[in-house]
Amino acid sequence: MAEQVHGHFHNRNVGSPGKKSIKDDKYPALNSEKSLEASNSINVLRSHMYEMRLLNSNPFAKVVPTKTISSYVNYFIGDDPAKWAPKCKVYQVITYENIYPKTNIRYYSDNGALKYDFILSPGADLEKIVMYFKGVESLLIRDGDLIINTTVGEVKEYKPVTYQIVDGKKIELKAKFEIRGNLVTFKVLEPYSKDNVLVIDPQLVFSTFTGSRVDNWGYTATYDAQGNFYAGGIAFGNGFISPASPGAFQTSYSGGVFENGVSGHDIAIIKFNKDGTNRLY
């Protein structure tokens, strides 16, 4: 079974890592997955990682990076210089061509949110796209959105925006997620032209306990002697936490500097109580 894998890492201070297996006659290779459980206790920083695999996809899909930005990233990990990777280029868009026959998947960022599109050329088979979520607690559909439950909270993928460009006009189509166990597929709910490109465009949203109404990324976390939890990261707009705590260094969004095609942002720091049920500041 060929498969393409991408994963997401979501960090919270409550819960415990967990994985579940499924039994599936159509994809017997999945039946070897074993359940793992970990104890749940407070005052411990918890995290959860899961993977989304594209089943029966092309392991030799051509990777095409585009929209290079001028900055670069250095990876100096460990003490062996031979394994270091300096001046790695950064791209805004990565496309895997022919991940399925006549189907590409494109990853990119839009206003701080991870986006991915399936782009089906004429003759592509929509039913071949099968996403397997490994390591999640459960999957469900709520108001058309895909809800991915983990031990530390929910991750949401908005219902897929689906469209075609026909004679220069964008034609939007109704579509939905379908779930079978840990497998997720797409279904277009109305007739569409098989002679034109079809685009399926979900959006991944991380639902957090912070109360933020805007995109925010966590970069660091720690705890104190009393077990309180501190998180540090960046926010991309007004509405991160409203109102800010009295005496805060800055109580409104300033926006940073837009540079090299990357939007500006502010630094954000939050403190939670030891069981994560209350935000202290």
Terminal residue distance: 49 Å
Largest sheet: 9 strands, antiparallel
Helix content: under 10%
Give average pLDDT, whole number. Answer: 76
Strand content: over 45%
Order of helices and strands: EEEEEEEEEEEEEEEEE
Number of strands: 17
- Tell me, what's the shape? globular
Q: How big is the Rg?
A: 21 Å
Broad structural category: mainly beta
Return residue spans where pLDDT drops below 50 for at least 5 consecutive residues.
Answer: 1-23, 32-42
Number of helices: 0
- How many domains in all? 2
Descriptive notes:
It is a single chain. With 281 residues, the chain is mainly β. It has 2 domains: 3-206, no CATH class; 216-272, no CATH class. It is built from no helices and 17 strands. The chain has strands at residues 3-12, 46-55, 62-75, 85-100, 103-110, 113-120, 131-134, 138-142, 145-150, 153-166, 169-173, 175-180, 183-188, 198-206, 216-223, 229-235, 266-272. Strands 3, 4, 5, 6, 8, 9, 10, 11 and 14 form a 9-stranded antiparallel sheet that branches. The chain has a 5-stranded antiparallel sheet with strand order 1-2-7-13-12, with no helix packed on it. Strands 15-16-17 form a 3-stranded antiparallel sheet, with no helix packed on it. The chain is globular, with a radius of gyration of 21 Å. Mean pLDDT is 76; it is low at 1-23 and 32-42.
What are its keywords?
9-stranded antiparallel beta sheet, mainly beta, disordered N terminus, globular, 5-stranded antiparallel beta sheet, 281 residues, 2 domains
